[in-house]
Amino acid sequence: MKHYSREEAGVPLKVKDSVRQSFNHDIKIRLSTMFSAEGIPQLWLNYFQALYTCKQEGKMDSWHPPPSIDKGTHYLLDALREKGLKGFKELWEAYGERAKCRQWPLVALRILSTCPALMPDFLLGTDSAPYPPFSMVSDCMLYLHLFHKEVDPKARRAALLQCMDPDRWPVVLLSQRGVRLYAMYAGQQNAYRAMEIMRSRDSQISASTLLAFMNVCTQARDVNKALECLRAIALMEDRQGLSMNSEAVLRHCCKLLELDEVVEEKGVRNFKILPQVLKLGVTPCLEMMNVVLSNAFATGDPHLGLDMLNYMKEQGMKFSSYTYVILLTDAVARQDRDRVDALLHEINLHPELKDNQFIASKVFHSHYIFGAKNAFRSDNPGRHLMDLLDVYCRYYDPTPLKDLGIIPERFNTIDIPKEAQPGKVILMIMMAAYLRCNPRHVTTMRLYKRFRELIAQRHPVIAPLAQLPQIYNEFIISFRPYGADLNDCVSIVEDMVRAEPFEIDGTTIYPAKPNDYTWNTLMSVFVSQRDVEGVASVREIMQQSGIKFTEVTWATIINGTVRNQDIPATVAALKEMDEAGVAPDSFTVKAFRLAHDPERLQAAIEALDKETEKLMEEEMKIKERETDELLDQGLRRLALATKESY
């Protein structure tokens, strides 16, 4: 590998035998650009750097344009303003090479400092031979990227794709910042094409640029290409201070490891990406191990997760808030209350973690899962609500709960920080807990009406909750107890259907429309009330709306028919379910236990099986006849064609 000391120069991606071809290409590129003999003018280097520094430091008053700006410069700038891209392009192409070389840097500096929105059109209008050098175009685009993101993104991308096309990149002294900018905004396919062009020409590339390409590959979930970029970095003799354990490399490795999965080879289960990363000399840090730990628990194998956790302990890693969030998430998902309690005890020993908002959210969620969520099974549901409310008030401002009427105005809020506003999910859980711990129709409608009022008033904290279908679904679920007024239940779904977008502080809020779970929940309410017509109506609405029936839908339908001891309807539902290609799940099987006459149901199912077999036999016979007919037709056509050929 060759050695280069300058970051902008970089190192070859791969050395091939086609060095002469690459050299010839580089000469060809340089001869087709401005300043091919003398190189980038010193005027540009000095004044662009000065402009960049002034803008970065917020001292544009100190910026002074080059004195060589003349009437010709202003004439070109005015033409771009008044005639647009097409008129300016025609004017520019009439200029000679010397005039272009003189005016291009001056007009570019003037545009960057006074009217950056014109820069994309300027670059497109001057994109003809002799072309401006890639590094100068890169400087302009980088300036827009860093300081003027308000410039039309589509115009910027159009200029980037045309004026920074990899076909015209030099091989040596290639602006690595320009390449990275191109990789960032050109899109996956264009970035991949740039990589192949650089590979075929043995183009110089720096470690930082390889990281940019690695990021593109990771975002595309292309693990092999991402690892290829990482291997190329590991093979470099000079990474310009970017070691394999530097923050930038580790950060990119963390993103790549989020795509990792467990594979089994020769009876041994292991991660697919992690071993390859470690072989390249990357030393696992806490952030990396957090990703690995999360991946391990995501496999559903708690032993694998605990193995990773023990490794982290053996390495003396001090757990971060993210580590505990991962551990709490896993314990709650497995409903391991003892594990949750043990983790909370650990967290309470660290003051810096105890008040962490991410951990607070998980602690709050765990209290809901282990208490209020299943309050209907408890002898004292109010206790679960007070327990959750106690956790809520440790971390969040109770004012939104007062506004909703969940807690009274006189509720003691001493020592509760007002600035800690709850997020949407926290408020949703609190409202769900309130409904589940107060399963009364009056309570549900009082809270729902207040919720609707606050949305109409554009309450800054409550109104955005209208975006969450889960909240409406919780209101619907609360109508399951027998005796509830189902007209009110249906009206909630109607409100969802009719809701229109609205704005709060310049942000558009799009109210949630009924989703699959909404319709399934509404159907389950009618099932619990033994309202056969209601169930049929919901089924019809779902079919007319093109909503796919899931396992949950069929389980709900069958639950209703079995509850009503309607065996013919149950068998018919099973038949439809089978035709839809949906297999019965555990909830469907559980519903069969409600049948008073399971023998009759079993007999009906067996009869259905026989009927299905009979239909299949008839279909096979029909298909055989169709096949024979098609074969006869084909033979007749073949005979006729053969006869005509003679």
TrEMBL record:
NCBIfam families: PPR (TIGR00756)
Name assigned to this protein: Pentatricopeptide repeat protein
Pfam families cross-referenced by the UniProt entry: PPR
Coiled coil: 601-633
PPR repeats: 515-549, 550-584
Keywords in alphabetical order: Coiled coil, Repeat
InterPro entries recorded: PPR_rpt (IPR002885), TPR-like_helical_dom_sf (IPR011990)
Family: Belongs to the CCM1 family.
PROSITE patterns, per database record: PPR (PS51375)
Signal peptide: none
Subunit structure: Binds to mitochondrial small subunit 15S rRNA.
Free-text function comment from the UniProt entry: Regulates mitochondrial small subunit maturation by controlling 15S rRNA 5'-end processing. Localizes to the 5' precursor of the 15S rRNA in a position that is subsequently occupied by mS47 in the mature yeast mtSSU. Uses structure and sequence-specific RNA recognition, binding to a single-stranded region of the precursor and specifically recognizing bases -6 to -1. The exchange of Ccm1 for mS47 is coupled to the irreversible removal of precursor rRNA that is accompanied by conformational changes of the mitoribosomal proteins uS5m and mS26.
